[in-house]
């Protein structure tokens, strides 16, 4: 065997060695990928499921919060209006009562005044009778 053939043979052996190393690395890469997938894929799936569930709840809560915010605005306006109407009615009631009580007091005063005049008249008549009887 010539030294040329020997060098060719060594080169070929080295190339075979490189091929074996590459095959081994490919196998190890596949095994490493399987190991990492086995360890992390279930956890990832679990977290994705939990995330989906919580995202749906968050979306629902956000939607309901928007609805309640709108409802709050509407109710705030309604409550404000009802408060104004209530206060106006209370003022009207107080005013109406004051007017009626004033009318009643005026009527009472007029009736009592008329009766007092009659009493005064009757007292004069009584004095006159008593004077006539005493004389």
The major pleated sheet works out as:
none
Number of beta-strand segments: 0
Strand content: under 5%
- Write the element-wise H/E pattern from the N-terminal end onward: H
Question: What structural category characterises the helix and strand content?
Answer: mainly alpha
Number of helices: 1
Radius of gyration: 56 Å
Oligomer: single chain
Mean pLDDT, nearest integer?
96
N→C terminal distance: 189 Å
Which blocks of ≥5 consecutive residues have pLDDT under 50? none
Describe this protein's structure:
There is one protein chain. The chain has about 140 residues and is mainly alpha-helical. It is built from 1 helix and no strands. The radius of gyration is 56 Å and the shape is rod-shaped.
Summarize the structure.
The chain is 98% helix and 0% strand. The chain has 135 residues and is an all-alpha fold.
Task: Give the secondary structure arrangement, pairings included.
Layout: H1 3-134
Key phrases:
mainly alpha; 1 helix
